Structures are given as structure tokens and as C-alpha cells.
Amino acid sequence: MHVAIRHGGLLGSVPRKARSHPGEADASALGVSDILGGGELHFGGLPDMKLDTVPLVEVNRFLEEVVTRVDPDIVFTHHAHDLNRDHRVVHEASHDRLPTGMRDAPCARF
Question: What is the pTM of this model?
């Protein structure tokens, strides 16, 4: 299980062993990762609650790096009509960066 988080003070991938002194939001992400069975977290270092001010190419770059590194079978992302603007940006970026076959999969989004 891999979890990609667009924001966070820690940049890059954080292997389970190397996690130390995370910020409050990062600590929450680590807790969620543990609930999901551990695995690797990928932090994008993008701004929280201001993602609509970031060029989409930067969000795309982060997602593309994670998808390339992980080669996922399934990707869960936000709904296109989520009320949170950051979530809509992530949806748009993931639609741009997911492999073509995954974009049409019924379980690729919720």
C-alpha cells in the first residue's frame, strides 16, 4: 500500500523506518498509513488549502513521479465534484496522469 499526500512538510518518499519528528499533519498521515497497513508515504510538499494557486503542472509532476515509481494497480482519488477545491485539483491532476486504462476503471475514483 502506498499513500500519496499532496502537501506535507516532508518531501519525497518516507520509508517506514525513516519516519522521525513529523509535523502535526504528517503525524496524522503516518497514523492513517499505519491503519492502512503501513507501506510507503509520498509527500508532495505542495501548499495545503491553496492548491488552486499552484500551476497544475506541479501537481501533475508529483503524481506522475509517484505513479511511475509505484506502478499501481488501483488508484483512489477525490471525486470531480468534491466541495474542497484542493480535492478537485487533485482529481484533475490524477485524471491527467493516470495510465489510460485506469482512467476508465469504475473503481479508480470515489
Answer: 0.72
Task: Find all residues with CB under 8 Å of 101, minimum gap 6, and list them.
Answer: none
Contacts of 97 (CB under 8 A, 6+ apart): 60, 63, 64, 67
User: Residue type for 30, please?
Assistant: L
Joined together, the cell numbers standing for residue 44 give 508532495
The amino acid sitting at 16 is: R
List the grid coordinates of 101.
486504462
Report the chain (110 residues): mean pLDDT per 10 consecutive residues.
72 44 66 81 86 92 89 86 92 81 52
- E strands, 1-110, where? 2-5, 12-14, 40-43
